[in-house]
Q: What sequence folds into this?
């Protein structure tokens, strides 16, 4: 998983669009996916997402690689729906899943993390009234995006270690060291944030 | 100028056995010293308390007794002001680097200083160029080597122009080539540098060396005699 | 919000390091107020729940796939306490709704709000708060009762918010009667109890390794 970590040099219209507009578009698409029923509507929305990806000039191979887990999920869910309810619902489920994930990928790929932070900080401004500094919210979001791939790697490592010892069937054996490492890394990160003066 | 006055650091540690009560252990001290030299090295065995000493200097760890002052600012009372004066470089850049690309990470440091968004990018690139990372400014951080990531961490600290730089084993995770690069950069800094290190060559270049053992400063002085004392200390088998 | 951080090494390691045992007069450790550590813990646990949710699921063929997601939710409450735990889950839900694919099945976006499983998702912040609140009480239990007490705290969260809200929304979205919805939702209870037991064991280990995590909470 890379989430927001992708490198980008292209400058397409979608790169220049304001962050708020892109997030609003994503939200609208989400509502449309849920609100509409039927195969034509689902395929139409998927076509919209694919068109957006084309406009944004997303590189095909890295994008597909990034979406691999979702593709697998979509294929499994589609197969189940085809068996249980027929081809119509199957196409709908798969198309809806891919539409939202692809659209999310377009927004994240065309928005530098720093600008996304600024946009989210603006969106979080009303929270100031309840004592939450908007900058802190934006930073926390950036930290989540940065930390997910790291934790995923940690989990794979401890699972591999458990597998090497032949004890992988007991989830305690790999979950406990994984969580201990996650807590330890979080505290190192907190130290670094304080040391760099980013948060006090 | 850094002044430690009878500084002691204690911590809670889990009790022994399954139901032992927590204990309070002393990690360091008391330490009294005034550091004015431009290059100060701190050496000591693993777990001797030398990292704790480094953390005291910018208020990451607060003394349980005594006090630590940087240019007259008390780390316990003016923590934020102290951390603006004292930059800190950790051993592992992965804990310190936050954003997905180098230029964004350095920009984050500048953001905190209140540099307007328009200037951040240019100033971040400048800071990266100073450590030789200009051509990597937009690559994903994960595509950088360990040595380059440590340079990035250094660039992000130096971008805020601290008066003092504290480094906690900055080259321990690096191979010899990157160690030389980081050492050369640190040597050329105009700032006061306090470096915790296992690298005795680096320590030998300091103006003053503190040897820490079992939570106490057991030797303090010029590199020659201090490092002899450290070598003698390390000649015994670990307990 | 206070946090004490004695050294680079976990305190468990510090105990075996050659630091001398304190004499009776050793001054108490001074806690440094650290919003930074709290932000890091909150963000990291939001990310941890995301990894739990996206890890390969156990397929059930039902509307809600079984993942380690609820394990992550109650563990976050037990390890971080009610306040930071709830904030971590709020952050997780917000990031997911903003479109980042961190929900189960690597989905994200506002569309998730309209799915049958939306109730479970919306219950998570409150669930972490409840698990965390009872978890603080569980910390005072004698050592040999700690894991069962933590399990009780986790299960209180499941029974008080996750299942009621999850089942209510699922019944509404799928047009089920109350009894049908209860029957459909009850399928997840045994799995959740196992995950809660797992969370209690892992949380107890984490709190032993980092005894100052919940200090002053």
A:
């Amino acid at each position: 998983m890379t989430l927001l970590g992708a490198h980008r040099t292209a400058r397409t219209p979608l790169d220049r669009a304001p962050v708020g507009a892109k997030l609003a578009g994503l939200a609208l698409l989400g509502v449309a996916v849920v609100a509409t029923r039927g195969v034509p509507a689902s395929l139409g929305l998927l076509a919209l997402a694919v068109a957006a990806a084309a406009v944004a000039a997303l590189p095909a191979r890295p994008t597909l690689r990034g979406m691999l887990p979702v593709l697998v999920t979509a294929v499994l869910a589609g197969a189940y729906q085809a068996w249980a309810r027929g081809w119509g619902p199957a196409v709908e489920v798969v198309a809806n899943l891919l539409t939202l994930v692809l659209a999310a990928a377009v927004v994240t790929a065309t928005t530098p993390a720093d600008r996304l932070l600024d946009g989210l900080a603006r969106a979080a401004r009303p929270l100031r009234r309840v004592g939450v500094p908007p900058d802190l919210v934006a930073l926390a979001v950036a930290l989540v995006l940065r930390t997910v791939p790291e934790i995923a790697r940690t989990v794979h490592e401890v699972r591999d270690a458990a597998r090497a010892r032949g004890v992988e069937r007991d989830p305690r054996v790999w979950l406990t060291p994984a969580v201990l490492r996650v807590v330890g890394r979080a505290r190192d990160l907190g130290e670094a944030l304080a040391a760099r003066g980013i948060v006090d | 100028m850094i002044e430690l006055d009878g500084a002691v650091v204690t911590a809670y540690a889990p009790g022994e056995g399954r139901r032992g009560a927590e204990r309070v252990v002393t990690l360091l001290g008391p330490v009294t010293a005034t550091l004015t030299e431009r290059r100060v090295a701190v050496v000591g065995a693993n777990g001797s308390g030398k990292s704790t000493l480094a953390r005291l200097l910018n208020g990451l760890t607060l003394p349980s007794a005594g006090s630590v002052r940087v240019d007259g600012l008390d780390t316990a009372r003016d923590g934020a002001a102290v951390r603006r004066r004292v930059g800190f470089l950790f051993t592992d850049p992965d804990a310190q680097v936050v954003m997905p690309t180098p230029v964004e990470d350095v920009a984050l440091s500048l953001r905190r200083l209140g540099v307007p968004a328009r200037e951040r990018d240019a100033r971040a690139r400048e800071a990266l160029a100073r450590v030789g990372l200009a051509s990597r400014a937009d690559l994903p951080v994960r595509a950088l080597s360990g040595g380059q990531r440590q340079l990035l961490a250094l660039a992000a600290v130096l971008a805020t122009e601290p008066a003092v730089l504290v480094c906690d084993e900055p080259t321990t995770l690096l191979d010899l080539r990157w160690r030389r690069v980081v050492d050369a950069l640190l040597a050329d800094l105009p700032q006061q540098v306090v470096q915790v290190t296992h690298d005795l060559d680096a320590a030998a270049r300091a103006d003053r060396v503190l040897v820490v053992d079992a939570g106490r400063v057991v030797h303090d002085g010029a590199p020659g005699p201090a490092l002899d004392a450290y070598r003698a200390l390390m000649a015994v088998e670990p307990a | 919000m206070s946090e004490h951080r004695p050294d680079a090494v976990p305190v468990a390691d510090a105990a075996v390091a050659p630091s001398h045992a304190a004499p009776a007069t050793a001054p108490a450790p001074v806690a440094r107020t650290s919003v930074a550590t709290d932000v890091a813990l909150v963000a990291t646990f939001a990310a941890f729940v995301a990894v739990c949710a996206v890890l390969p699921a156990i397929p059930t063929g039902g509307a809600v796939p079984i993942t380690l997601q609820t394990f992550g939710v109650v563990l976050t409450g037990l390890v971080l306490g009610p306040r930071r735990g709830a904030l971590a889950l709020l952050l997780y839900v917000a990031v997911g709704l903003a479109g980042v694919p961190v929900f189960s099945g690597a989905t994200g976006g506002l569309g998730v709000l309209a799915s049958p499983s939306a109730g479970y998702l919306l219950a998570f912040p409150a669930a972490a708060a409840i698990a965390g609140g009872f978890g603080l009480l569980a910390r005072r239990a004698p050592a040999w009762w700690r894991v069962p007490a933590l399990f009780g705290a986790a299960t209180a969260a499941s029974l008080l918010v996750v299942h009621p809200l999850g089942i209510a929304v699922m019944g509404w979205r799928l047009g089920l009667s109350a009894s049908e919805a209860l029957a459909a939702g009850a399928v997840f209870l045994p799995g959740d109890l196992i995950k809660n037991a797992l969370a209690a064991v892992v949380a107890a280990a984490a709190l032993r390794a980092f005894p100052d995590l919940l200090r002053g909470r």
Chain C has seven helices and no strands. Chain C touches chain B at residues 4-9, 11-22, 26-32, 142-144, 208-209, 211-212, 215 (CB under 8 Å). The helical segments of chain C are 11-16, 35-54, 69-97, 118-139, 146-174, 178-186, 189-209.
